[in-house]
Please model this.
Amino acid sequence: MVDGAGSRRADVVISEGHVVGVEADVAVPRGATVLDAGGCLVAPGLVDIHTHLRQPGAEEAETVESGARAAALGGFTAVVAMPNTDPPVDSAAVALEVLSLGTGAMCQVAVAGAITMGRAGACLAPIGELASLGVRLFTDDGAGVQDVSVMRRAFEYARGFDVTLAQHCEVDALARGGHMHEGEWSSRLGVPGIPSEAEEMMVARDIALARLTGGRVHFLHISTARSAALVAAAKAEGLAVTAEVTPHHLSLTHAELAGYDPVYKVNPPLRGEVDVRALRAACADGTIDAVATDHAPHAPERKDATLDAAPPGMLGLQTALPVALGALVERAGRAPSDATGDDGWGAMSALDVLGLLSWRPARIAGLAPEHGGDQGGPIEPGAPANICVIDPAATWEVDPARLASRSRNTPWAGRVMTGQVRHTVFRGEPVVVDAGAQR
Ligand SMILES: [Zn+2]
Model:
């Protein structure tokens, strides 16, 4: 059993939605359901602070129900749905619609609100009204807020509601027209690129705004070595800054685009090997607070297009855990998900990686016990039973046709993953047992 307090060997007893006992060799009460966790890590359920569920507006790609199912199978007991739906989550009505769609889903579905109306970057969304519904994270994700004075006002407005602004860092004027990272491979392939600076300039700008306003900012999916260095410096200065990285930016590089396969088109784009290594190091040294999937389903009729026409994004919920473990944990025989080769990296334990996927993002999203939530552990008597059971040694092959998502745009098709979610318990209910969804 592992949680933020450490790890030990124990049975976990659950009753009526709560953990009631954590002790060695429990006598099984008559009639109890027993989930075998032999050889497994029993951890607080994973929490994804960056999920695109596509509802309302693009139900052909994903729904709250199908996305939550994929999440549960991936070990998540909570996801934060991004607000770039159609219509976007810039009003109480749309936030309530998503929250009500999430009632009865296989994991908790929290919702992020937009920073600006229509995510258009001009007028602030009703952050206070959305905060009163429990919305804790605000972002125009898919786009960064370009206008620095609008962003300054957002910082000042948000401070009054104990909410966090989450930025998709990308300066449009530099990124526009690009389809992959601007570098060696984009020149070789003749594909317009997106320079690292398009991200780094906005990270630097928002750090300056956090300093100016005393506000709090979370950086979504940072992808470059210099972004990580900027975040580290801001933290050293004592600013209220957090950052996440995706499993794919920890494991894949722009070289994957060599065959022009649009499945590798993501935003921010896959970067270079130096960036991948720096992001791994930033996870290990505490600069990066969370691994978040940026699960971005797209229906095949849209994604199976030419590189320039295909929308950016890839699935992530069902592969996040093994990809993150493969990228960050040292073990004999590197995981096949490690596209950058054996560079001697591997300073993290599985416990540390679970922190990046569970209790630390739970706190950023306001879903942890200290904010009145029930996610991210600890696993102790009296705590809500949101738990995932992970077999770190189990191997499985990714078959896109068998993923729970309505979409198929995974870069890991046919790849053998090491590390599997055996069971997921959501508020006391075993929603995934032996890697199978129970409803
Ligand atoms: Zn984004």
DSSP finds 13 helices and 19 strands in the chain. Residues 141-142, 168, 220-221 surround zinc ion (CB under 6 Å). Confidence is low (pLDDT under 50) at residues 332-344.
